């Protein structure tokens, strides 16, 4: 026998028996996006390297260490997207979406790729749902976006989710902060990792989210950006908090949140769950007023967030949140003999045209095995068709739950009889 081929480390399969959970969550997310006025954007899985180097930032772990890059046949080196924000911003510019009226609100479902050490809640291929807003600078838009996140988690009935917010200021207040950070880290330089040595020169803020345990420990006592905010950033943050209070969205200010991507300015936030281990940030986002300009556009304020769908489903499972199981098939027709098979084929076709899930045997099983299969897939009704039934154009429809049998006409009267019995059975159970 040929050797089995296994999936790549850090990737997961979503199997037919579980996909209804994803579909349920995706439907809620899409619906929340709709009521908040978002329209879906879909962008390619691979982009130019420069997009992430300039967008996400050269000094970030994501770009420096985690990007999946492949070589094309033309000898070009291209990365798989590590996140959705940069691609969405590129598309906004490339298609001049700003001409369609501001604000633009776009949401997406994407796979993302990061070469990280896999563990519970951390994969190399994972799924994000993101919401991005372009052309809004008012603190109201920060509050509205955070509310959209809170509203999603409320609709999915997540409990004990912590919302932590912070402001990381603008380039103006950052200049002084960088000086203070540099001074602090210079004094601990000999203990920092090699990557952080170069970060110290280029962007000392990136040391704050280094994953090395020693750098993490040193970063704990580093100066906090919130103490360096300029007047405008301070008042923006204070207004965001006022609006969140007005909307009764609970939060705590965590001055240590800096986020791992370079494009953020001002408000940043994370929704953090309990009980799913170390990778507990289900959602992260913030304002990124400099990104559009960085990518070659005119300055345009923007903000957004992304939810990790694997982590979201993990939290739901850990909290015992029930996801409605899909509807069962309404009918399984077991057929014996050529004529009965053709009749079953046609009847199932009519039911499917009416939007009902129905099955018949396509693998050539005997009657007993067909009935066993009908039971396994949870068919509500079964019908056995043989020569007699075809000759008389009548058969016994069996309710699999009650074992009750009802005579049903075949041919053109079948649908009418079947729908009446199906509706009566549903009314009985409701
Ligand atoms: P991020 O914090 O890097 O932000 O990722 C957002 C979410 O994706 C995380 O909170 C987490 O739930 C999930 N996630 C990240 N890495 C992994 C992984 N290796 N395995 C499983 N899940 C993961 C961004 O990506 C930004 N683009 C968010 C954003 C949108 N900011 C503004 N707009």
What is the alpha-carbon Rg in Å?
28 Å
Distance between the ends: 51 Å
Mean pLDDT over the residues: 96
Give the fraction of residues assigned to helices. Answer: 25-40%
Numbering strands along the chain, what is their spatial order in the largest sheet? 1-4-5-10-9-8-6-7
Percentage of residues in DSSP E strands: 15-25%
Overall geometry comes to: elongated
Largest sheet: 8 strands, mixed
Number of strands: 15
Order of helices and strands: HEHHEEHEEHEHHHHEEEHEHEHEHEHEEH
Number of helices: 15
Low-confidence stretches: none
- Sheet/helix structural class: alpha/beta
Query: What is bound: which ligands?
Result: histidyl-adenosine monophosphate
Q: Can you lay out the helices and strands and say which pair or pack?
A:
Layout: H1 19-35, E1 39-40, H2 49-57, H3 61-64, E2 69-71, E3 77-79, H4 85-94, E4 104-113, E5 125-134, H5 139-155, E6 162-167, H6 171-186, H7 194-202, H8 213-219, H9 231-246, E7 252-253, E8 265-272, E9 281-287, H10 291-294, E10 302-308, H11 309-318, E11 331-335, H12 338-353, E12 358-360, H13 367-376, E13 381-385, H14 387-392, E14 394-399, E15 405-409, H15 414-429
Parallel strand pairs: 1-4, 6-7, 11-12, 11-13
Antiparallel strand pairs: 2-3, 4-5, 5-10, 6-8, 8-9, 9-10, 13-14, 14-15
Helix pairs in contact: 1-5, 5-9
The structure holds histidyl-adenosine monophosphate.
Write up this protein.
The protein is an alpha/beta fold. It has 15 helices and 15 strands. The protein has an eight-stranded mixed β-sheet. It has a five-stranded mixed β-sheet with strand order 12-11-13-14-15, with helices on both faces. Strands 2-3 form a two-stranded antiparallel sheet. Strand 14 and strand 15 form a beta hairpin. Helix 1 packs antiparallel against helix 5 and helix 5 runs parallel beside helix 9. The longest helix has 17 residues. It starts with 18 loop residues before the first helix and ends with a helix. The mean pLDDT is 96. The structure holds histidyl-adenosine monophosphate. The site of histidyl-adenosine monophosphate has 26 residues, from strand 5, strand 9, strand 10 and helix 11.
